[in-house]
From TrEMBL:
Signal peptide: none
InterPro entries: KTI12/PSTK (IPR013641), P-loop_NTPase (IPR027417)
Keywords assigned: ATP-binding, Nucleotide-binding
Similarity comment: family membership: Belongs to the KTI12 family.
GO molecular function: ATP binding
A Pfam family of this chain: KTI12
Gene3D superfamilies the record matches: P-loop containing nucleotide triphosphate hydrolases
Entry superkingdom: Eukaryota
Name of the protein this chain belongs to: Chromatin associated protein KTI12
Amino acid sequence: MACITISGYPCSGKSRRAHQLKSYLEQRLEDPAYEGPKLNVSVVSDTDLNIDRAVYNDQRVEKPARAAYLTAINRRLSKDTLLILDGMNYIKGYRYQIYCAAREAGVRVCTVFVACTPEQAKEWHDARPAEERYDPATLDNLITRYEEPSSMVRWDSPLFTVAGDDEDVPGDAIWQAIMSGVKRPPNRATETAAKPPTDILHTLEQTTTSLVSLIRSAQQSLPSPDFGGAVNLPLSPVLKFTLALPNRNVTTAELQRLKRQFITAHKKAMSQSVVGRAEMDWSEGKIAEKFVDYLEENFNAS
């Protein structure tokens, strides 16, 4: 249903805001006035995934940790879950990856920016127990590298900012965004490939071979030297097609060449097929129909 990304400096209070938001959303869902679908609220955090703060000491270790976090997000994204992402989420490219995953899952998105100054974040960090602190150099590095969300970019919007002295999150506004806001469809970068049947190559070869044989037989029954005219191609008792032949003899070599070109083009379509862009009906009847159209187009172009 929705993916809510919490972002801010380390030790800025992201987890506190995530739990405030979780409590608010659960209360709204339990309200007798709520008449929408049954939803659950879930939080994904570094702590849940046992990602130690030490991974941020080395970018070579941090990268697989972020990948594990993104994998967990993908597993939990669903249309019956309000998913709150209580992670570092400090790199805009990483937030874009989350945005793409959410669009592919067909859920709404929003970002909550937990704002505070670097000095305040460091003060709150130093007040934590030793086991919850970052290495001082790592903390400085994370603050320096932090890329603040912007409402001007689609993957961070709608954007809600929570200041350090705010008592609570803007629950009402977030609720409206995730329950009735715009749900953007997948784009080409996030679309799922449309998988053709496993026997498609056999169907392509068998269907086109049968049609070539039928065309050769039908052409032989036409009066010579005028070979042109419409011929019937009964591929099966229920699949019958009509092909307009040109006023010349169409050789077997020409038919075989056009058949190879047709199959090659469809093999390419299979590898590039994407929902909403190159999806097609791979049934025997549709393949036969397209092959007949393909032949007529090439006969007319000759």
